[in-house]
Design a protein that fits this description.
3 domains; FAD/NAD(P)-binding domain; binds flavin-adenine dinucleotide
Length: 509
Amino acid sequence: MTATQIQTPAPATQEYDVIVIGSGIGGLVTATQLAAKGAKVLVLERYLIPGGSAGYFERQGYRFDVGASMIFGFGTEGTTNLLTRALAAVGQKIETFADPCQIHYHLPNDLELKVHRDYEAFLQELGDRFPHEREGIRKFYDECWQVFNCLNVMELLSLEELGYLFRVFFQHPLACLGLVKYLPQNAGDIARRYIKDPELLKFIDMECYCWSVVPADQTPMINAGMVFSDRHYGGINYPKGGVGQIAQKLADGLVAAGGEIVYKARVTQILLEGDRAVGVRLANGAEYRARRVVSNATRWDTFDKLLPSEKLPGSEKSWRQRYQKSPSFLSLHLGVQADLLPAGTECHHIVLEDWADMTQPEGTIFVSIPTLLDPSLAPAGHHIIHTFTPSWIEDWQNLTPSEYQSKKEAAAARLCDRLEAIFPGLNAAIDYQEVGTARTHRRFLGREDGTYGPIPQRKLWGLLGMPFNRTAIPGLYCVGDSTFPGQGLNAVAFSGFACAHRVAVDLGV
Ligand SMILES: Cc1cc2nc3c(=O)[nH]c(=O)nc-3n(C[C@H](O)[C@H](O)[C@H](O)COP(=O)(O)OP(=O)(O)OC[C@H]3O[C@@H](n4cnc5c(N)ncnc54)[C@H](O)[C@@H]3O)c2cc1C
C-alpha cells in the first residue's frame, strides 16, 4: 500500500494506542517511531497528502515544495542527523544531493557572502570582508561548535523523561553540562562577547533571522549551535524528487510498520472523558479512541479549535504571554527559463536592501532554486524559483475576490522587481507563476493565521521557555514546531523523537 492511498477509516469503536492529529514531519516522526516499537498507531491528516509545510504540489510539469527546501538532518554521522534516522527506523532511505553552499547572501552595502559547506572557506570569506574581526568571528562560530559537539554525541530523546536524563548524563557528563550552560543563552549575547563591528553584528542577526525569524538576541544558542555547525558537518542536502519525498517515505514506512494513515480526515474535536483526552472526532462525525492523543497542529490550533475554550490550561496561557505567532509568508512559486541563471548560481539566496527592513513584512526575501540540485522537478530547459517573504494575515483579510487577486499580483510584481537585482531578466523569463498568501498557508496547512510558528514576545532565557511534548491535559501531547526546539524540519523531527519516547514510556511499549 502506498502513502498516497486514501484508506477506509477503521470502525469508530476501534481503540488505538496512539492517534496522531496531522502528518507534518513532527507527527510522522512520532508515529513512525511508535509504530516501530510495536504501538498501534493511527495518523489522521486533513489534507490529501502528508507533509504539511514540507509537502509539495504539481503544476504544468513543475513540482514545487510548499515551504521547506533547505534541509538539515540528512547527514550520515553523529546523532543530529534526525531525518536520516527517522527514515531508517522504518526501513526507508532517500537519495540526496549535497549542496556546496548553504546561502548566498545579498545584503545592504554590497555585503555579498556565501556560507560554504566548508567551514574554513566560510570563515575565510567572512574574515576577508571584516579583517579586523577575524579572531572574533572564529571565536563566535567555534563556540557554536561547542554546543553542536555536545548535542551530536548523545541520543536526542525526551528531556521530560528522567530515566533518559540520568542515562545520558552518566554516558556523557561533560556534554550534558555543556548544554545546560547554553540552554538559557541567546546567540546575540555570545556574538557580542567577541564581535564589535555593528555591520557584522547585523550579519549575525540575519544569520539567525533567516531560520528563526527573530534577530540573534532572541535566538536560542542551542538552535544557533545546531544550524551554524551542522551546515558544515552533515551539510545541507536536498532530497531527490523534492522535499515531499520525506513525508511520503515516512508515511510508507509507517504503513509498512503496521501503522495507519487516513487522508481527508480533519479532526474537529479532541474527545475528553473528565479531564483526560481519550480520542478524536472528525468533521464527518467519525470518532476514534486511543490511549494517547498527539497533536501535530500548532498549539493555537490545538487548544483554540480542538478543545473547549474553558479547558485552556494555565500553562498555555502563560506560554502565550512569552511567545506569539510569527508572521506568515507571501510565497511566489515561479517556473523560469533555465538560461536566466548563469553558471555557478547557488541554490539558496537571501536578499535585503536596507537593514531597517530585515524583520518588516516584505523585508527579507528568501529564494530557493531546487532544480539546480534536482533538475527532474521542472520541465527540460526550466528552473523553479521559490521565493518568499514575511507577510501578516491582517494584510490579506476583508478583500473581495478581485481585490485579493490584484493584491497578490501586485505583491508578486514587487518581489520580482526586487529579484531583478540578482537575476537580471527575471520578469521576461517567467514561464509559470503562482502566489500563496497567509490565507493560502492557513487554508492548506491548517495553521492559525498561516503562522510560521512561535517566536518570543521579548528576549527570553534561550530555549528554557519552550514547552516539551506533554500538555496539562492528561493523555494529550503536542509535537512539531510549537514544541521544543522549534521550527525547521530537523527541529520538528527532534520533537517527534522526543514525543514518541515520552509516549512510549507512558504506555510501557
Ligand atoms: C515558506 C516556508 C519555508 C520554509 N523553509 C524551511 C527550510 O528551508 N528548512 C527547514 O528546515 N524548514 C523550513 N520551514 C519550516 C518547516 O517547514 C516547518 O517548521 C515544519 O515543516 C513544521 O512541521 P510540523 O510537523 O510542526 O507541522 P506542519 O508541517 O504544519 O504539519 C502539520 C500537519 O497537521 C495537519 N493538521 C493540522 N490540523 C489538523 C486537523 N485538525 N486534523 C487533521 N490534520 C491536521 C496539517 O494539514 C499538516 O499536514 C519553512 C516553512 C515555510 C512555511
